[in-house]
Design goal:
By secondary structure, this protein is of the alpha+beta class. It folds into two domains: 225 residues, 3-Layer(aba) Sandwich (D-Maltodextrin-Binding Protein, domain 2), CATH 3.40.190.10; 189 residues, 3-Layer(aba) Sandwich (D-Maltodextrin-Binding Protein, domain 2), CATH 3.40.190.10. Helix content is 45%, strand content 12%. The chain is built from 20 helices and twelve strands. The strands form three sheets. A seven-stranded mixed beta sheet has the order 1-3-2-4-11-7-12. Strands 9-8-10 form a three-stranded antiparallel beta sheet. The chain has a two-stranded antiparallel ribbon with strand order 5-6. Strand 5 and strand 6 form a beta hairpin. The protein is globular. It starts with 7 loop residues before the first strand and ends with a helix.
Length: 434
C-alpha cells in the first residue's frame, strides 16, 4: 500500500448522536472524574487507510464522534493523519513517529522490533481493567499480535474469509443455497453443478497461499507449530489440499485456468461461488450483485483465516504522553469504539463483548450476509505476526502458484514452500535472540 498523506483531520467536537453511543456502549476505559482541560494530552494518531476507503472513513468519523468523551475520560485530544507502515517505520527511525498508529495486523512485529513502540502489557500493567479487557479479546486475535512472547500491539478489528454465492445463478441452475454446516463434499457438488465453462464457472480462487491455507486448515492442517517457530505445511494434508485444488482446475474444470482470483466483484454473472472476505460485500452491493454468504465448508474441522488491523502506541520521552497513547489504543479496543466503527465499516469485532453487544447484534440481524462473517469471529485464525511474515507467506504463494500453473509438481511445490518460508522465519528468530 502506498503512502497517502493527503490531509489532516483534527478530532473536534463530538457529532450529534455521540451521547447515545456513550450511553449504550459505555465509556470503555475512562471512568472516574472528568480530566481537567489543563491535563489533556495532545495525541497524534496515524491511520493506514484514507477517508475514501469505507474503513478509513468509519475510523476517523468514530474518533470525531467520541472526541468529548476522549477529552473528559481518557484525557486526550486526537489529531489524525494518514500514513502506511513504511512511512511509520521511516518516521520512527528518524525520531519523529506518531503517538499511536492504526496499521495492518501483520506489521505489528515489524514495527515493534524497531524499538519504537511499547509492549501494551507492560505499559498498561497498572490499569486496573486491562487484565479483564485482555481476556475479552478472541484468542486468534491476541495470539497473532504477539512476537517473542510479548503482546506487541492491540487488535482493533478483523476480517475473515467465507463463501459468497450469486443467488441468481443458483436459482437458475436449481442449486439449493449452502447451509451454515455444509461440508467440503457438498461444496464440491454444488460448484460442479454450477459450472458451465467458458461462460460460467462454479468457483474461483487466487493462485497463492491464502486460499490454499484456508482449505488446508479446514482439512486439519497446521500452518505453524504451537510455538510458532516452525512451518508445518509440507505433509500429506498440505499435498492433498493442493492436489484437490489442482484437480478442481484441470480435472473437474470448475475453476478457470489459470485461476484469475476474485470474479464475482466484476458484476458480470460469470461465477457461482467466490471466496473472499466481509470487506468485499460493499463492492457487490455497488455492482448490483445479489449475493448470499456461507462460512467456509467443513472438511475435518471448521476453519477460516482472518487478517485485519491493529493499534500500536509509541514510546515518548514524556511518560504521561506515552501512557496516554497506550490508554487511547486500549480504549479503541473496547465497545465504545469497536461497535460503532464495525457497524459503519462492515468489519468484524475482535472482542466477545463487542460481538455480543446489543447494538452490534441488532445490526447483524438486519443483514444475514454480514452476520455469517461475524459469527466466525471467535474461531478465526490469523497467522502470527512476524517481522518478515509477509515475505514468508509470499514464498508459499510462489510455490503454490507454480503447482497450480503446472510449473512444478505438487510434492516439489510443498517442499519448496516450507523450506523457503522457514529460512525467512529462522532469520527473524535469530534477530530476536540478539
Amino acid at each position: 500500500m502506498k503512502s497517502r498523506v493527503t490531509r489532516r483531520f483534527v478530532v473536534a467536537a463530538a457529532a450529534s448522536g455521540s451521547a447515545a453511543w456513550i450511553a449504550s456502549c459505555g465509556a470503555g476505559g475512562g471512568g472516574g472524574k472528568s480530566v481537567p482541560a489543563a491535563q489533556v494530552v495532545n495525541i497524534v494518531h496515524w491511520g493506514g487507510l484514507p477517508v475514501t476507503h469505507a474503513s478509513g472513513a468509519a475510523h476517523y468519523d468514530t474518533l470525531a464522534e467520541r472526541a468529548d468523551e476522549l477529552r473528559s475520560t481518557i484525557g486526550v485530544k486526537v489529531t489524525t493523519d494518514i500514513a502506511d507502515t513504511p512511512k511509520i517505520v521511516i518516521a520512527a527511525a528518524g525520531g519523529a513517529p506518531p503517538n499511536t498508529a492504526w496499521h495492518g495486523y501483520g506489521d505489528s512485529a515489524l514495527i515493534f522490533v524497531t524499538g519504537a513502540t511499547v509492549a501494551p502489557d507492560e505499559e498498561l500493567k497498572k490499569e486496573k481493567d486491562w487484565a479483564a479487557q485482555r481476556k475479552d479479546i478472541f484468542t486468534g486475535m491476541l495470539e497473532s499480535s504477539m512476537w517473542g512472547g510479548k503482546l506487541v500491539a492491540i487488535p482493533l478489528e478483523t476480517n475473515n474469509r467465507g463463501i459468497y454465492y450469486d443467488k441468481a445463478i443458483l436459482a437458475k441452475a436449481g442449486i439449493a443455497p449452502p447451509t451454515a454446516n455444509w461440508t467440503r463434499d457438498e461444496f464440491e457438488t454444488k460448484i460442479v453443478r454450477a459450472s458451465a465453462p467458458p461462460d460460467r464457472w462454479g468457483f474461483t480462487i487466487t493462485a497463492g497461499h491464502l486460499d490454499w491455507s484456508i482449505f488446508y486448515g479446514g482439512a486439519g492442517g497446521q500452518i505453524l507449530n504451537k510455538d510458532a517457530n516452525k512451518f508445518t505445511i509440507d505433509n500429506e494434508i498440505g499435498r492433498d489440499t493442493l492436489r484437490w485444488l489442482h484437480d478442481l482446475i484441470y480435472k473437474r474444470q470448475v475453476i478457470p485456468n489459470p485461476p484469475p482470483g476474485e470474479m464475482m466483484n466484476k458484476g458480470e454473472g460469470t461465477v457461482a461461488f467466490d471466496i473472499t472476505g466481509n470487506f468485499r460485500y460493499p463492492v457487490y452491493r455497488q455492482r448490483g450483485v445479489d449475493v448470499g454468504s456461507a462460512p467456509m465448508p467443513i472438511h475435518k474441522t471448521r476453519f477460516t483465516i482472518g487478517h485485519g488491523w491493529n493499534l500500536s502506541a509509541f514510546k515518548h520521552k514524556d511518560a504521561a504522553v506515552q501512557l496516554a497513547s497506550a490508554r487511547l489504543i486500549k480504549w479503541m479496543n473496547t465497545t465504545a469504539f469497536q461497535v460503532p466503527y464495525a457497524i459503519k465499516s462492515d468489519n468484524v469485532p475482535v472482542t466477545k463483548s463487542s460481538l455480543e453487544h446489543k447494538d452490534f447484534q441488532a445490526y447483524l440481524a438486519k443483514d444475514p450476509v454480514v452476520k455469517v462473517f461475524s459469527d466466525q469471529a471467535p474461531a478465526v485464525y490469523r497467522v502470527p505476526a512476524m517481522p518478515s511474515g509477509f515475505k514468508s507467506m509470499d514464498q508459499i504463494t510462489v510455490s503454490v502458484k507454480k503447482a497450480l500453473l503446472n510449473e512444478s509438481s505438487i510434492n516439489d511445490a510443498m517442499a519448496e514452500a516450507q523450506r523457503q518460508a522457514q529460512l525467512i522465519l529462522d532469520d527473524d528468530l535469530r534477530q530476536l535472540k540478539k
